[in-house]
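Final paragraph of the annual report: two paired records, presented back to back.
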Amino acid sequence: MAHVSAAERRPQLIKAAIDLMTREGVAAGSTRAIATELGVAQATVHYTFGTKADLYRAVMEQITEDLTAQIERAAPEGAGFEETVVALAHASWRTVREETTHYRLLTELSMLALRTPGLSEAYQDYYRAMGKVTARLVTEAAARTGYELAQPAETIARFFLAGFDGLTMQHLYAPDELSEDIGLRALISATIALAGGRLELAEMPTG
């Protein structure tokens, strides 16, 4: 059998871990089960990642990269700051509805991280990365449109993510499309108000 380098094996194992844990839950994601999913020896997982926490960190990073890439592609060209925030928020929410299994997996990993030494740092890194990406999108939208932010982009990002996480949890455990749409529109309005602008709920597109 031809030798496969760790660099080549890494994305294969990450995908196998995501596929397995999306299908069967995080509890099923042992290194042995992930190795079996890909059809390699268990030692290959440890050789490639070192520890299971490192593999789980890579899983969170990959899902985050995939989801944020979808959101970044949704940024409208030539739109004002407020319109850009609306578009990005709705694009983010579409990923929740279209990639529900990935958000469910991230939620399970976050709950596991609270009680697992070595994994809590991985989740902290994930959340910091999400905050950094969101703050960058806010900063870029403001710079592109000449909009002066009333609060630091990091503060706006943390506020939005806190509300967005709450809506995501509701969608995962008690979905209600009408309530979610109203909640998202209210969050967008509050985020824009924090940034220094004003956008009434009635002005925002639905869906």
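The closing record of the year follows.
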Amino acid sequence: MFATYLIGLREGLEATLVVSILVAFLVKSDRRNRLPHVWLGVGLAVALSVFFGWLIEYTSATLLNTSKERELFDAVTSIAAVVFVTWMIFWMRKAARSIAGELRGKLSEALAVGAFAVTGMAFLAVIREGLETALIFYSAAQSAAGGAGRGALFALIGGIVTAVVIGFLLYRSALKLNLSKFFTWTGALLILVAAGIFKYGVHDFQEADVVPGLNTHAFDISSVLDPSTWYAALLSGMFNITPTPSVLEMVAWVAYAVPVMVLFLRKPGKPTAKPAMPAAKPAEAAEPAAAAKPATEASASPVQPA
């Protein structure tokens, strides 16, 4: 439940921030008449996302006839969810500073076209978050408890509601939140969740007889990690840590979690500034007195202002 709550909170806050940027732009530019078109686009995106989530669950539960088909379907959706999670957290870290300007620019272009374009722009801005949420939720719920039960669904809705409340308070300037730290911490937790989903996907591939080694266990800590305890349920539900994983499951978990976490937490290097002036000649470099001049003299421009 905590994993699905985290997914709802993270994805919901991203979508809420996108909507708040669009609404704030329309309000400040005195284009409130276009607000219904934005809400229409958001509503269509939410409806399609819910339908997509239902379609995934319906396909697994009804359309697939054998257990092997269901295991293979769950494995494929798990791998797809891991790809989306990884792309999402790195994209958000890179685009967080420029997303507001990009959204305002796209909305300005849509306003020049008409109401249909505004609705479509709002729809496209939110639908990505909605489809990601549906896919990741299904995979996380499957890996945690073998099915998207009511508890996981309520946890997801709770995370989304929390995100909407936080987004509304940020919009009203009633709450201050360091979004950079928030997305860093939630991104790190989601990497661990994604590692568990990836491990579960490998397990499903093994149960579908696509890859071998299902009964070759890496270790057995069932005497220490009793599956009936609350902390075992928390570890299993959050990070898919199980008492008797296969060797291939653990290799997959480590191979994903370690490099992705290192890359995510590594501070991006500052771009090297190109020199504004050509390199000094050897004869000029031998004049230390020029470098010792006051900053006002050294920075004086030979071109006088008009």
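The two ends are 67 Å apart (CA to CA). This concludes the annual technical report; the extension proposal builds directly on these records.
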